[in-house]
């Protein structure tokens, strides 16, 4: 049976996270709108809140606004965990414990298997990335393609960049480079102009880039099947 809001231990409720979990549990019990939420109906809010955090950071908003936006993302996590707890699957504490264990497991350059700190740490980001990739490969040995695990729902530009990051680490051939602007602002203008040109031609820039990424990923599979 799921724990009801009024059944939470007092020490849990009086911690900031415990109080939030209790508030969400009470809302699920007593607020018809909250009570009607499902994992599926929450997806749009999770995406919206994540984009709002990104916008807040990129716009250089003040700390109070960032704090509020991060709280909105945390609310989504607590809500999903509460839904799972109500059906007896897992609770927020399980999510937190699982995440802590994964961070320890995937960062052997910082932690020993028991969670204690290593005596020394790697000097370069390259070493860290190599260790991280090695641990991920050990966790999912069935994954032979470096692009597996990249969400299909990512916007095309983000999917393209993540695919190229994975390809470079896997030693796969990268597309030929072309001269790029010297600043991100100039790059943004160039990308915006490309979208504008695509629109004039009647092309869908997002769909076109998705297709290019898909063909690039397929070329990796074709080369490694030979």
Which properties best describe this structure?
226 residues; mainly alpha; globular; 2 domains; Helix Hairpins; 10 helices
Q: What is the structure about, briefly put?
A:
The protein is mainly alpha-helical and 226 residues long.
Number of domains: 2
Architecture of the largest domain in CATH?
A: Orthogonal Bundle
Q: Give the low-confidence spans.
A: none
Write down the Rg.
22 Å
Protein described:
With 226 residues, this protein is mainly alpha-helical. It folds into two domains: 5-92, Helix Hairpins (Orthogonal Bundle), CATH 1.10.287.1080; 145-225, no CATH class. The chain has ten helices and no strands. The longest helix has 24 residues, at 63-86. 8% of the residues are buried. The mean pLDDT is 89.
List the helices and strands and how they pair.
Elements lengths: L9 H4 L2 H15 L1 H4 L3 H20 L4 H24 L5 H15 L18 H15 L16 H15 L13 H18 L3 H21 L1
Helix pairs in contact: 2-5, 4-5, 8-10
